[in-house]
Amino acid sequence: MDTISRENNSMLPIGGIIVGVIGLLLGGYSAISLSKVNRALADHQQKIDKVDAIESQSASAIAAADKSAKEYQGLRTSTQEAFNQVGAELGNLRASVTKLEESAKKPAPAAEKGKKGGGPAVAGPGEYVVKAGDGGAKIAKANGVSLTDLQAVNPGVNWTKLTVGQKVKLPAKK
Prior knowledge:
mainly alpha; Membrane-bound Lytic Murein Transglycosylase D, Chain A; 2 domains; 70% helix; two-stranded antiparallel sheet
């Protein structure tokens, strides 16, 4: 039995050497592969850092856009409210102007016409030439007639825009 065990044992060291060499080769290949993986990870880390920077920039841009949207909505609301107020005021002014125009078109009230003995005012033989600074009330007072009668005999005269040299008829004195 001694011979059999010796014969089998002689191959054992060679097998160990072969397995050791294979292990060394595999270890070297693993080391080379690991270094390639480490380099790839380093390259990917740079890309990951760039993606993180872009993500942070986009987050701040989104926050700025949200803030701008809120400010725009506030301005839009306040502008609409201002337009509503202005529209209401324009409506009030239009109503006032309409009332003024209607009152200017109405004839003199009947009570004014019949103050001194009846009948409407009629134009007399005289005329008055407008001077600088004259107005309807001043002309009426200077000629001893009422402003209502003066306006009644001069229906086409714009009393707010008298011009120097313009002629107005004087009513007949009652």
